[in-house]
Amino acid sequence: MPSYVVAGAARGLGLEFVNQLSSKSDHTVFALIRNSATASTLYEVQESRENVVILEADIADSVAVEEAAKAVESATSGTLDYLIIVAALATNMNKSILAFDSNEELNEDLLEHFHTNVLGVVHTIKTFLPLLRRGPTKKVAVLSTGNADLDATLSMANPGRVGYGISKAAMNMAVAKLALALKPEGFVFVSISPGMVDSKAGRRSPENEAVFQKTAERIKVLLPDFEGPITPEQSVDMMLKVIHRWTVEETGQFVSHYGNKQWL
Ligand SMILES: NC(=O)c1ccc[n+]([C@@H]2O[C@H](COP(=O)([O-])OP(=O)(O)OC[C@H]3O[C@@H](n4cnc5c(N)ncnc54)[C@H](OP(=O)(O)O)[C@@H]3O)[C@@H](O)[C@H]2O)c1
């Protein structure tokens, strides 16, 4: 009866993780969301599946995450097999460092991203550690991005995604540090990029839709083999295969949905 916590499960890739994981009736899936208003499809999934438990917690709110961990603990007799952190802040995606109107605005962008994407991730992992320690599996996967890879950033020549890319790169390092500290206990960590995924189909503003399509076109010019964005179903299927096969010898690495450094 493996148990999974998916943090950031209201929609997008988190919702798809819950959908695929809960399709196996012997899995128990705890879906952490910060806002039930955006989670209507998740509630529909829960209606047809007895093995989905929805809990409210913003990963940047340590008290809420502790409450969620207590609820998981009492439902599983104290253990957890897998923690998958999907939630992330991703704003000001098209601004370069030079495009912020003031230093205050730039600082605010960097600190807000750091607060959720680094501190939120680190404290969520720490909060669930006692449960993971009591389980036999001890696996933690955190969603990262090719925008956190220096070589990919330089070759794509995109000076935007400032707070997002910087905080995700810091998050990868935080995951590596935790992986090293917990390797002697048999923990397996992975920072995993999902590829370019059309996870927001039908809910982008016209402006963001144009940017998304333009980015896909630009990548096709740079990488002629790139076939365009993949679906959440494809991405999560590939990521779960990587997560399930990842070993303690590979703990702490930052890889793509292919399990290597091919980001797209
Ligand atoms: N889609 C891509 O092409 C792509 C590429 C590279 C990396 N990624 C990474 O993949 C992950 C998921 O992306 P996505 O495309 O599925 O994004 P998405 O469609 O915007 O979904 C993000 C989910 O995370 C939740 N969330 C955000 N901040 C949260 C917080 N502080 N606490 C709890 N939940 C929170 C959101 O909840 P609300 O509904 O409340 O907003 C939403 O359910 C992110 O880590 C992202 O950086 C995605």
UniProtKB/TrEMBL annotation:
Signal peptide: none annotated. GO terms for molecular function: oxidoreductase activity, acting on the CH-OH group of donors, NAD or NADP as acceptor. InterPro entries: NAD(P)-bd_dom_sf, SDR_enzymes, SDR_fam. It holds the Pfam family adh_short. It comes from the Eukaryota. This is NAD(P)-binding protein.
